[in-house]
Amino acid sequence: MTTLSDHKDDVFSTLTNLATLVSALHDSTDVLSTLNHNLAAVTALLSDSPDEVGQAMADLSALAVDVKSFVADNRDAVGTTSDTAASISTALAQSLDDIKQSLHIFPTTLANFGNIYEPASGSLTGALAVNNFSDPISFICGAVEAASRLGAEQSAKLCVQYLAPIVKNRQFNFPPFGENAFVGAQARPNEVTYSQDWLRPDYIPPAGSAVSVPEPAALPAEAAPPDRSTDPGAGLPGLMVPTGAGS
């Protein structure tokens, strides 16, 4: 009794916990029933195919041995590959903005490529756009500064000082001339659309009824003038050509 009296708190706590456990089990009847069904299904599956489970375990054991031997034989290669993959991942992470920009301009670039590609000749065509003429001082003096080893800044200043009065009024966006040295086929014959069928080179006009042209009417033969004999008694006129048409 003394022992029970000394541990009465523990006894009551144990009873309280047991009551809580019994209540939880009572409230979880459906869950326990589902668990029992699942365990029964797993047990039935294992009992129906014991050889398959054993074979799977044997295969897993053999695979573990193969993996262990592979890692042991290729330790340096695996380490190098891991380091390379880490460096590639780091480079991709550092170039994330460039990748986004590339993906942003790729559709426009692809469309421009489609515009300059000529399928008829299998070549690329384009227009020369030299936009450095819009600011020739910066272009020329920048090149001078880049090519100078010593005193680059002073060289650039002298370049600007001497060239500015000459080219400051000769700035334009593009050169004022055009060039198209090579002109090739722009479309295949089967890609040309004619507005009228009779414009096609292979056009054959439809066969129609021939128009009969009337023959000219025969002119009536001119009547011969009547024969006239000369009359010497009439003098000189009687001896001349008889009078008639055209006289």
From TrEMBL:
Location of region: Disordered: 209-247
Protein name as it appears in the record: MCE-family protein MCE3d
A GO cellular-component term linked to this record: extracellular region
Biased composition (Low complexity): 214-226
InterPro entries, per database record: MlaD_Phospholipid_Transporter
Source species of the chain: Mycolicibacterium fortuitum (Mycobacterium fortuitum)
Domain of life: Bacteria
